[in-house]
Structure formats: C-alpha cells, structure tokens
Design goal:
Elements (H helix, E strand, L loop, with lengths): L9 H46 L16
C-alpha cells in the first residue's frame, strides 16, 4: 500500500526543510546568546561577592575590646 503513494518531489519539499533548519538554527543561536549573557552576568556578580567577602574581616569579634563583666 505504501509503495502506491506518490513521493513528494524534492524541489517542493526542499524549501520547507531548509526553512525548518534555518528556524531551528536561529532558535538555538538565540538560546546560546541568552545563556552567554546570563553567564557573564553571574560571573560578574560572583566576582563582586568574592571581592566584598575579601573586604570583610575573618574575625567576627569587634575590633574594640569588650568591657570586663561586672560581678
């Protein structure tokens, strides 16, 4: 039964196949561009957090000595 069905000529379908490939390629390209922008923003924020973490002293105690406890 399938052998009796006429095949679609390639010259008619070729335009649609090429168009579909172009659309998929453009969508993948846009997705990669969006991910690159997000990655650069995350790296920039991570660098800012890292530099602000280095600015904070590691010792959580206050710099001035605490008064002695009252007995």
């Amino acid at each position: 039964m399938l052998a009796e069905l006429p095949a679609l000529p390639l010259h008619e379908a070729g335009k649609y196949v090429a168009g579909a490939y172009v659309v998929v390629f453009v969508l993948v390209l846009v997705y990669v561009a969006i991910m690159a922008v997000r990655l650069s923003r995350i790296q920039r924020e991570l660098a800012q957090l890292s530099s602000s973490q280095r600015a904070v002293p590691d010792d959580p105690r206050p710099s001035s000595p605490a008064p002695p406890p009252v007995s």
